[in-house]
Input
Amino acid sequence: MCRNITELRGLEPAATAEEIEAAARQYVRKVSGIQKVSDANREPFEEAVAIVTAATTTLLAALPPRKQPPPTVPPLRRPQVRARIEAKAASSG
Output
């Protein structure tokens, strides 16, 4: 797992709901130590993701615009990551 949470503030266009939830999920995985969600911990894990997603959305909306964009492209905006996500969705659908 990545050690750093994805930086979402200052993106053009603004961070999507999908990007915000992915960052929240990454954060909850890191602080909980849960890498693979099981039936035993699914409910509290998903509830934490929802809470962190909502708090992040509120925070990003309340902050003033950044003077500089983040130094790297967030993972969900990288072409190779998007291609992997789309391939996975196509094979499972």
